[in-house]
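Sample entry (237 residues):
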Amino acid sequence: MKSVSLNEYLSSNSYPGRGIVIGRSEDGRSAVTAYFIMGRSVNSRNRIFVTEGDGIRTEAFDPSKMVDPSLIIYRPVRVLGNKTIVTNGDQTDTIYELMDKQQTFEQSLRTREFEPDAPNYTPRISGIMHVEEGKFNFALSILKSNDGDPSSCNRFTFAYNGPAKGEGRIIHTYMGDGNPLPSFSGEPVKTEIKGNIDEFTDNVWNSLNEDNKVSLFVRFIDIETGKTETRIVNKNK
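Predicted structure, serialized as tokens:
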């Protein structure tokens, strides 16, 4: 698979929905992840990311405008030892709790399926990063309906050992705007990871559609030491 420019890839899609990027920094020193959320409705756009422990959670920017918190308030990022979990829903907690009981990433996700938001049946996308003793690997998962049929859940997991410098993968919920919204299809897209944490953060944020983007989380994890650096960008301020 040919690597694409992350800037060009995101800029060409007005509504990729929620997305996860995981890879290795250009200098090879850091494991990198980004998680972004977008929204078309007032309820979806009325959110910010806030720090919670080693991770983050979503929160209503204006609580008086919150209509239904069930699918939009959750913890996208949690840390379990040397593992960082990144997802687009409350399956973050499912993965954390079941992996803490010695189940695998895939086993944990077998207890879940796509979101119950007919007619979109938004896919659940999840990622896990394992950084230990100078080694880094990661996996990405998507749980999606069978072409809009809610009676069938298709489950895909993609694992990447020893990712190359400056290389990552992106997976997101929708192929683009529409009604119903078309689910992501195929293998996570190979993309370039460029710059330091601030340059990378600016690149992702500025590539997202100005009307639809809501929040962005970026983390660099030093592969040798495990030390983390984090950036959070919220459109609502």
